[in-house]
Design a protein that fits this description.
The complex is a heterodimer of chains A (304) and B (599). Chain A has 304 residues and is an alpha+beta fold. Chain A contains 12 helices and 7 strands. Chain A folds into 2 domains: 27-130, Ubiquitin-like (UB roll); 133-263, Fumarate Reductase Iron-sulfur Protein, Chain B, domain 2. Chain A has helices at 59-69, 104-107, 133-140, 163-169, 176-180, 182-185, 196-206, 216-220, 233-237, 244-261, 263-271, 279-282, and strands spanning 27-40, 43-54, 89-92, 95-98, 114-117, 124-126, 129-130. Chain B is an alpha+beta fold and 599 residues long. Chain B contains 17 helices and 18 strands. In chain B, a hairpin with a 5-residue loop joins strand 8 and strand 9. The chains are: A alpha+beta (304), B alpha+beta (599).
């Protein structure tokens, strides 16, 4: 040290005890039985843990208590513990939930038990952790935000034009909607359907007032929007309260239907490539036959 | 099976700084690997709620980068790296506009421009924001940009635990994949450290599990310097009840939107501590004021203060603070549109970190760069709200570009030491081989108790010395940690490694706290309650010396006269939304034309 410490301002140092704040841990005299699925890709079972209940305890607190006191190797993905990152997704008593926002006391079934299992739509890594990498692969296939080349910065956009987009952008990518969606969960249609999360993502781009890309062909083909039969399960589990079905999927379905299935538009599409001179010859023939592939419902899902 | 990867630039950490660095390095023509402990888009950046401070002047045209410079220097109690502050205040404006060009969505002004809100110790309404989830918007925007940038490979849930060297140069890093526990070895021509801050060594913190200081500790062990480590920010408003929610952040935007702090007696106590700025005083001042109220017996039932926003009315609150409404109703059963929140200070941010060159983020170790919260300098002794999201964009980009240039100048492929990697893997997996020993969770808890009691918001020489002794004792026990199970996704195993990182970083915090014998910014020494002008010209820097940590004073280079002038002013109080509304009502009452608030 080249610096001489200046004299203390107060003669007597305060004892460190005065700095200590005692915290009320809100421990109750009750315990909860938390049944946690333990295992890996080859199989597993539910293991019971008796957890002392704290006031307002959430399921993630219970998992942490188990890790610190009973099973240090209990695998559980989590980050912020504040409902903002969407990492601690799992199923509590069969319902897709964020563990950090689910209170133990609210979660308990009639017998007071809390059953915690991993998401069922994704491959198991270990215990409560699933392999959600498929979602990131899907995201990479969606064409990014593309403003017009001449659209100068900074943008001028009225607030009203962004209200819908703001709702979609609230998504924290917890993938609970992907977990609950029966097209992914029961039919395992990951090769044909991108799931609610990425329909919301596409909606956030399609409805952005400055975006110029056309993603309707993608929606109809690779994204498989036709597979959604609007059961609204995704909306029910969304922790951000995004009205996924009503505000994202249905508007997109309407756009696809308007473009692809409207007979007058279908005719226009057929005529448009023709040179003006051909108009007279083609126009009197009446509405063109629709391509069978453009008609009707999307292909049936395989059973199971 | 060891996973081996070769790349030109390795970015460790995938928060805002890491992603922005990766994009910059890839755009400069480099192959880039980004390694992240978590899934992409889950980083701590999402916890930033209030906004990005940038002198766009969309709401208050009087604002400028010069005023922002003065606010930031004064907020940081003048020990900031002034060159970093200068670059930051100038460039953050472009970074915000760039984010919008990449598809980021911000709240708008009546004229359709990016709207800006008031925040603590900013002279004008300056924070570009979207509701109270600006960090999420930033990370999602960068994430989508990154995914569609050529030349970037992302390794999710790959925990890197040691920098590997080739002679005196950093040449890669090693660690393990979380899902499988497989060892990972990455050879890289240059490395950008973007691992964020550290709050997990304290008990009451708004930090996620990731905030264990790995990046700072790894850089320190590789020979880098840690600067200003004593400066740890207490966010004045964290949740305090129920116990499980303790520490979770309550955004400063609540106060920016007009929230009022009251004590048990209903008194608006900030009027006593800072009669001008009141609730919108800087974070260190507000946090200390709450602490003092509690110490004086005027705290709320669970040892904090009441934060009241109910006067704004339910619809305005739901629009401006939707995630706060949700957070309090789901976690605490409190309807913030009808009743006040109970809040207390929580460890939130670390101003200190790796010592870097302002322009490039270069550290003292060749080949190693750092950006974002893990780097020191921009925020001095106290960070202003809204300056962290801009920090990661401005300096993430600069570090990425500099790392790309550096990688291109390297004449031979990097050859990191295999011996170092093998020693590291032994350290990572060793606790799995012990039948019995210390629990990493118990050691972590003891460290948290020690740091919270002795090195938190208020400190004394004695409390810091006592904490240092505890750290030494814990370090000895940390050599005997045992964890059951195998290496695949084993939280016990990762916590065991984190304990070592946290002990190094805690030691640096405590030693810095001891050496700075004054109160400045976030450092509040009860035994030295005043600022010492002489110490205001110094930073304290931790270096390795003979295997020990030495903390030494380093003089701050003198500030050029034009900047001195900017820093000398007074921070004014920006209008809050509440004040605007009141003004507007008053004007209507007087029959003045609405909207023309300023002369």
């Amino acid at each position: 040290m080249t610096l001489a410490p200046p004299a203390p301002a107060t003669a007597a140092e305060e004892p460190p005890q005065s700095l200590r704040i005692t915290y009320d841990d809100g421990l109750t005299d009750r315990t909860a039985t938390v049944r946690v699925w333990r295992g890996d890709g080859t199989g597993g079972r539910l293991v019971d843990y008796a957890v002392p209940l704290q006031e307002g305890m959430v399921v993630l607190d219970a998992i942490h208590w188990i890790q610190a006191n009973r099973a240090p190797d209990l695998a559980c993905r989590w980050n912020c513990k504040a409902g903002k990152c969407g990492s601690c997704s799992a199923e509590v008593n069969g319902r897709p939930r964020l563990l950090c926002k689910t209170r133990v006391e609210d979660a308990g079934g009639p017998d007071g038990q809390v059953v915690v299992q991993p998401m069922q739509s994704f491959p198991i890594v270990r215990d409560l952790v699933t392999d959600v990498s498929w979602n990131y692969e899907v995201n990479a296939t969606i064409p990014p935000f593309t403003p017009a080349a001449g659209d100068a910065a900074p943008f001028v956009i009225p607030e009203a034009d962004l209200v819908r987009v703001e709702e979609y952008r609230r998504c924290i990518e917890c993938f609970l909607c992907q977990d609950v969606c029966h097209v992914l969960r029961e039919h395992r249609a990951t090769d044909r359907f991108v799931g609610p999360r990425f329909l919301v993502r596409i909606a956030s781009l399609e409805l952005h007032p400055k975006d110029t890309r056309d993603r309707l062909p993608l929606l109809r083909a690779e994204a498989g929007i036709g597979y959604c039969n609007i059961t609204k399960c995704c909306t029910e589990v969304c922790p951000e309260h995004i009205k996924i079905t009503d505000n994202a999927i249905i508007p997109l379905k309407e756009r696809v239907a308007d473009r692809e299935f409207d007979p007058i538009r279908a005719l226009w599409r057929r005529l448009r490539p023709l040179p003006m001179a051909a108009w007279a010859a083609v126009a009197p023939q009446g509405p063109a036959e629709e391509d069978p592939a453009e008609k009707g419902a999307p292909p049936e899902l395989p059973p199971g | 099976m060891t996973v081996e990867v070769d790349t030109e630039v390795l970015v460790i950490g995938a928060g805002g700084a890491g992603m922005r660095a990766a994009i910059a390095a890839a755009e400069a023509g480099c192959q880039v690997v980004v390694a992240s402990k978590s899934l992409l888009g889950k980083a701590h950046t999402v916890m930033a709620e209030g906004g990005i401070a940038a002198a766009l002047g969309n709401v208050d045209p009087e604002d400028s980068w010069e005023v922002h410079f003065g606010d930031t220097m004064r907020g940081g109690a003048m020990v900031n790296n002034w060159r970093m502050v200068e670059l930051f205040c100038q460039e953050v404006i472009d970074r915000v506009i760039e984010l919008e060009q990449w598809g980021g969505v911000f709240s708008r002004t009546g004229g359709g421009l990016i709207s800006q809100r008031a925040f603590g110790a900013h002279s004008w309404r300056r924070l570009a924001h979207i509701g109270d989830r600006t960090g999420l918007e930033l990370i999602r925007t960068c994430q989508d940009r990154l995914v569609h940038t050529q030349g970037i490979r992302v390794l999710m849930e790959a925990t890197l635990t040691r920098l590997l060297t080739d002679g005196d140069r950093v040449a890669g890093a090693c660690g393990y994949r979380r899902a499988s526990g497989e060892p990972v070895l990455i050879r890289a021509a240059s490395v950008v450290m973007a691992t964020g801050g550290w709050g997990r060594m304290y008990r009451i913190t708004s930090n996620s599990w990731e905030g264990t200081g790995d990046g700072a500790a790894m850089a320190f062990l590789a020979g880098a310097e840690l600067k200003d480590m004593e400066f740890v920010q207490f966010h004045p408003t964290g949740m305090i009840w129920p116990p499980g929610a303790r520490g979770i952040l309550v955004t400063e935007a609540v106060r920016g939107e007009g929230g009022i702090l009251r004590n048990r007696e209903g008194e608006r106590f900030m009027v006593r501590y800072d009669p001008v700025k009141k609730e919108l005083s800087s974070r260190d001042v507000v946090a200390r004021s709450i602490f003092k109220e509690v110490q004086a017996g005027r705290g709320s039932p669970h040892g904090g203060a009441f934060l009241d926003i109910t006067h704004r009315g339910p619809s305005a609150i739901r629009r401006a603070l939707p995630s706060m409404v949700d957070q309090f109703s789901s976690l605490a059963g409190v309807d913030i549109t009808k009743e006040p929140m109970e809040v207390a200070p929580t460890i939130h941010y670390t101003m200190g970190g790796i010592n870097v060159v302002a322009e490039t983020g270069a550290t003292t170790v060749p080949g190693l760069f750092a950006a974002g919260e893990v780097a020191a300098g921009l925020h001095g002794a106290n960070r202003l709200g809204g300056n962290s999201l801009g920090d990661i964009l401005v300096f993430g980009r600069r570090a990425g570009e500099a790392a790309a240039v550096d990688a291109h100048t390297l004449r031979r492929p990097p050859a990191p030491s295999r011996l170092q990697a093998e020693a590291e893997w032994r350290m990572v997996f060793e606790p799995l081989e012990r039948e019995c020993g210390e629990s990493p969770f118990a050691l972590h808890r003891e460290l948290q108790e020690a740091m919270q009691s002795g090195a938190a918001i208020a400190r004394t020489e004695a409390s810091l010395r006592e904490t240092l002794a505890t750290i030494e004792a814990l370090r000895e026990r940390a050599g005997r940690m045992a964890v059951p199970g195998g290496p695949a996704y084993n939280p016990g195993m990762s916590t065991a490694r984190d304990v070592h990182f946290m002990l190094i970083v805690s030691e640096a915090i405590v030693r810095g706290g001891i050496e700075r014998r004054e109160s400045r910014g976030s450092q509040w020494r009860l035994d030295y309650p005043e600022r010492d002008p002489e110490l205001g010209t110094l930073n304290f820097v931790a270096r390795q010396r003979d295997g020990q940590m030495a903390v030494l004073p380093v003089a701050i280079p003198p500030m050029p006269a034009p900047l001195q002038e900017l820093a000398a002013g007074e921070t004014r109080v920006a209008a809050t939304a509440l004040a605007d509304a009141a003004d507007l009502r008053a004007q209507r009452h007087r029959g003045a034309p609405a909207g023309g608030r300023r002369p």
